[in-house]
């Protein structure tokens, strides 16, 4: 239900293609759902729509719990939607999560998703799946504390404990205990991501085995051994962080499913 074309005063992204509608350009805005799009993208817009419920924007940064839903599993919608999109059309892409997407598009889409709050626009219009991967990694990196940290038993302590226990069974037991003591949102989101990364590692087309994925996600998911790490500490921590993620990915999927399969329908993006 479009109104006549209007002139854009503040640059905003087009809901259909994701590219920014520049100042002074004409655009179309729907009376019902307030959708804003390029005039050239009008034909790709669905003909039927409904008024959108108001969803307050998410903060630009925060701890994971700030973005999590109120009912379990406590996995932010942004994480669910990115993972769902990657699994839908990205498991045939070589170098998934290692190949970078356009930095500008990653920034624009992350900002767009945070501003949307719980009412996320579809990511199917993002042509390059590596951009979606970049949004997910950038979101996780931007948290005030890494996913593997929190008030109880931060995973950052694992390099000197559970991951170095020579007995595999004892190491697994220690690892499971530490994960279960993480704050609920951190624990559920970590479980959801581990199941996703295992899927990626099992795809021959991606060529991203557990070792490759642990190198990519180690610094993102696991904190440093000190609050304000020096360059030397960062360099020393990096292999330890990768080792932690590799050990997490060695745990059986059934362990991770135990955290996210409660009310699994909550993880299906609307």
TrEMBL record:
Instruction: List, for all copies, the residue spans of the domain called Phorbol-ester/DAG-type.
Output: 1-49
Keyword Glycoprotein among UniProt keywords? no
Assigned keywords, A-Z: Metal-binding, Zinc
InterPro entries on file:
C1-like_sf, PKC_DAG/PE, Rho_GTPase_activation_prot, RhoGAP_dom
One family name in Pfam for this protein: RhoGAP
The Rho-GAP domain, residue ranges = 62-256
Checking SUPFAM superfamilies in the record gives: Cysteine-rich domain, GTPase activation domain, GAP
* Biological process (GO), any one: Rho protein signal transduction
GO annotation, cellular component aspect: centralspindlin complex; cleavage furrow; midbody; nucleus; spindle midzone
Q: What's the name of the protein?
A: RGAP1 protein
Please give the organism: Poecile atricapillus (Black-capped chickadee)
The gene is Racgap1_0
